[in-house]
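Researcher: Here's the sequence for the chain we discussed earlier.
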Amino acid sequence: MARLLIVYHTLTNGSRQMAEAAAEAARGECEVVLRTAAEAGPDDLLEAEGYLFCAPENLAAIAGVMKDFFDRSYYPVLGRIEGRPYAQMVCAGSDGENAARQTARIATGWRLREVQPPLIVCTHAQTPEKILAEKVIPESDLEKCRELGQALGAGLSMGVF
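Model: Thanks. This is the structure I predict for it:
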């Protein structure tokens, strides 16, 4: 059975809700391994056939813990995961575009194949209080996460990717 690795980081639970929604939907299609960025590492990448990266946007960039995951994993798997499919989700306070570009550049270095444009969920949190507050992702956005997870899982399972 194909394995999908979902790696996420969260401080306010927005990205966690997104990653769990995608994982829930993908489980009907393939084996899913859901890991926080602090837990995940090179072995997880090597053992999976596809990836879903879910990061919050912090100061117009991917969160530091997510970047740390990529830093710890980049060279140990370089040249060993080429061609594998990936998608990404960003939980953003404003536009999330730069965070998505950063992840895409890392994936390009690994020679991963993007199979879905980035899904960016914007919380519009623009004050310190709202930025640091616990997030509740709207059901309509969680449904988009489920659709992405199901499509990625189905594609892996059917060998489309």
